[in-house]
Structure formats: structure tokens, C-alpha cells
Amino acid sequence: MRIFLFFSLLLLFTFGCQPTSKETSPNILVIYMDDLGFGDVGFNGGKAISTPNMDRLANEGLNFVNAYSSSATCTPSRYALLTGVYPWREKRARILPGTATLIIDTAQATLPRMLQSKGYYTAIIGKWHLGLGDGDVNWNETISPGPNELGFDYSYILAATQDRVPTVYIEDGNVVGLEEDDPIEVDYKTNFEGVPTALTHPELLEVMWDHGHNNSIVNGIPRIGFMKGGKNALWSDIDMADAFLDQAKSFITAHSKEPFFLFYPMQQPHVPRTPHPRFVGATDLGPRGDVIAEADWVIGELLAQLETEGILENTLVIFTSDNGPVLNDGYVDQAVERNGDHTPWGPLRGGKYSLFDAGTHVPFVAYWKGKIQTGTSGSLISQLDLFSSLAAIVNSEERTADSHDLHQTLLGRSQAGRRDLIIEASGRTALRTEDWVYIPPYTGRRAVSRFTNIELGNSETPLLYHLKTDIGQLQNLATDSLSQLKSMQKQYKTILGVE
């Protein structure tokens, strides 16, 4: 009897201490905003835009106030998140045209493929912007390679950005709604005969361009690039948030009985800012504020869908943004004029395109109801780290050298964070080490963008800041802290492998 009781207790202890399938195979939802600033959200102090659902994630989850994207622009940040590799290692990881070749090798390790290997059904619904195909894409046939060749079982995407052609949805490699007798043609250098542009037919514009957006006109909005055909396949800009939401809700319902990974890269508040009429006037900031309010509503709908399916408590939600904010990014939409006292960048300096902190220091929340304790974390973490951290959570042994396993930190069980991080902006790089930031000199370059009016972090001399005492990066300590400067210069060169 004693032997029986001993082994019974041993078995109970052994199996009782093993993680359950729900703890090792949670559904994973990554919500990836586009150009959302650190200070745009209520949970980081923003007051001009009501963001109750984003705030709910932060208030009921773990708000990381020291989190970074890998780049101050979209394509490289997405590359890093999906591969766990620094974007500066891939020279093609720059802002891509809609006709760009796929920049992730189909043999490369990716986050969705890693999760696939652990039994996850994977999907991307939203913005892609990592290139498609291996040469000149024929938009009238199945487009490959793309997301489906990188580990996504299902894809429903826009190829690049909302302001770039082609202005169509692509589902599993095929343009949605395309008709055989109205083929699509796309070119980023030469217009097609007879196709109106913002320069030739300004009377057709419903949204006026400010800079860089004066090519083909779709739905009264001038775009980057030229496009012809595909009339029945063209998206409706004001319905885009609803279109992606419908696909996401259907996906959640269809796969609620199995572990799934949904990468949900939203288009807001990237230009053109086209809120649905029911959100026009939701804020006093004009279209930029209104599309953020619309995005917040979408997030609320996603959470409600998870609750309806009874899987909210078994879903790990990561909420973040690809880079920092920008007001005027190419259209006349009153983003500057109506911004008032709102500070999308929060207490930080710079914005999108910038090596200053607001370019890559972004909102970042981990939410898992009942599993992650509510709070705020100051641990240094990067979107790069999602690859290795999520791999650890699902018991995968895959890791990448650039991605740190911070899953205990992500789950609120540790305060460990990165010690250092390389950030990137349009091919320029800088180093953060603990509370210090070093920005190398970039001579002969503009200090302030003449289009966006954002400080880019370019200087004729080295820049060194101590963020713990100077979060706004107002005091350059390169001269006063010479030993720190030299140490970081050496470390920077070592990481990048340069002399």
C-alpha cells in the first residue's frame, strides 16, 4: 500500500507539474499597427484620441515602455519581426515598391514556419510589403513566391502599402475579384497610355497630394506608381478596415478548435488616412486621429470574437507598431494643422524615418488573460525577440542569433531584457546599450526632412544620449562622456562587423 501511494503521488507530481497544452500551445495574435506613435495611445499618456480597446490590452496585460521595432520604416521592421534577423543584414530590406521581389528567402527560417512545425495553423491578414514573386509579377496569374511559401497557410493581403499600386487584395497568391477580360498592369517608372494621374487630371482628386503621391488615381486618391485595369478588383479604401476585420473574424471562427497564429498587420494610421464614414469626426485631429479610433474599434471586435469563441483565455496577444509616427506623409489631410497639443511621439524625439528614439521606440503590449499579470515593464525588448521568445513558449528549439529568448520577460515572470540593440532608419544605424544611445555621424545629410519636418538624427559629429536622465535626447554627452562614447563606438563596429 505504501509503495502504491508513493508511486501514485510521484505520478501526480510529475504530470501535475507538466505544462498543459493550453500553456504551451496558446493561440497567438500579433496586431501590428502602421506608423502608430508611442504617445498616440491612452495607456502611454495620450489624451487626444480615445483608445479604450488598446488601453484594455495594456491595463489587463503587460505594457512594455522600453520596447523597440527594428527600424524606423515599415519593410525592414516587418522583415525583422518575421525572421528574427536584423534588417540591416538584408540590403534589400528598405521601403519597397509594389512590384518588388520577395526579399525573404523561401528557405529562411520564419516565425510562421516555426509555429507551423509545432502544429499551428498560420495566417496573415493585412499589409504585407515584403515583396512578391521572383521577378516581374504577372498580377493576372497566381503570384508566387509570397507569404504562403514562407509558412503562412492562409494569406489575405495588400501587396505593399495603401498609397502604392496595385490597389487590390491578394488571397493565397491570387488577386481577389479579377476578371479575365480586364487584366492588371503595374509599373513604377512609366505610365500607361490614357491612364489619368494627379498631374494630368487634378480635377479627379478627392484627396490632394502634398509630395510623392501624384501618379495613378484610384478612388479619387493619387498613388505611388502606375496601374491599369482590374476595375472589379480594386479595393474600397474606406472599407479596408472592415474588409480585413471580416477576414480575421472568419479565420478565428474557422480555427478556434486548433492552435493558430494570426499575424494582423493593420494599415492605420499610414497614409492615405481613409476612415469609414461612421468614424469621420471621431476625434478632433482629422483623418489621422479618426483612423486610430477606427483601428481601436477593430481591436475591440477582435477581442469580442475571441470571447465569443471561448478562446480569449487561451490567446496570447501582442500589440505593437512597425515604427514611429509621422504627420504629413504625402497627402493634404490636415494632420499637421489639426494636431493641436497632441504629441504622437510622447516624450521622445524624432519620428518615422528618424534615428532619434521616437523612430523605433513604439507601443508594445503582451496580453494573455489569466496568464500574464497586469503591470508595466521597463525591460529593454525588441520585436526581433518575438521569434525566439515565442519559440520557447511553444517548446520549439528554433532560435536566431539576433533574436533573444525573453519569453519569461514577455510573460511577466522576469525583468531580464536586452543589453544592447541596433536600430535602423533608411540604411542608417545606431546603437542602444542599456540606457545609452550612440548615433554615428552622418555627414552631408539633412538634419530635418524637408517633407515630413522630422529630425532624422543626422549630425556632422557623434551623438550620445543617456535616456534614463534625458528621454527627450536634448543633451549630447559625446564630449562630456568620452570613455562611454569610445566604448560604444567599439561595440557598434564589432556588432556590425566593420572597421
Describe the structure.
This protein is α/β, with parallel strands linked by helices and 499 residues long. It folds into 2 domains: 26-172 and 236-413, Alkaline Phosphatase, subunit A, CATH 3.40.720; 421-496, Arylsulfatase, C-terminal domain. It is 21% helix and 16% strand. The protein has helices spanning 2-16, 21-24, 52-59, 74-83, 111-116, 240-254, 287-308, 386-393, 407-410, 482-496; strands spanning 27-33, 62-64, 67-68, 121-127, 154-158, 169-171, 174-175, 185-187, 217-218, 221-222, 226-228, 260-265, 315-321, 364-367, 375-377, 381-382, 420-425, 428-433, 436-439, 463-466. The strands form 5 sheets. A 10-stranded mixed sheet has the order 7-6-5-4-12-1-13-14-2-15. Strands 17-18-19-20 form a 4-stranded antiparallel sheet, covered by helices on one side. It has a two-stranded parallel ribbon with strand order 3-16. Strand 18 (428-433) and strand 19 form a beta hairpin. The radius of gyration is 23 Å and the shape is globular. Mean pLDDT is 95; it is low at 4-21.
Q: What are the SSEs and their pairings?
A:
Elements (H helix, E strand, L loop, with lengths): L1 H15 L4 H4 L2 E7 L18 H8 L2 E3 L2 E2 L5 H10 L27 H6 L4 E7 L26 E5 L10 E3 L2 E2 L9 E3 L29 E2 L2 E2 L3 E3 L11 H15 L5 E6 L21 H22 L6 E7 L42 E4 L7 E3 L3 E2 L3 H8 L13 H4 L9 E6 L2 E6 L2 E4 L23 E4 L15 H15 L3
Parallel strand pairs: 1-12, 1-13, 2-15, 3-16, 4-5, 4-12
Antiparallel strand pairs: 2-14, 5-6, 6-7, 8-11, 9-10, 13-14, 17-18, 18-19, 19-20
Helix pairs in contact: 6-7
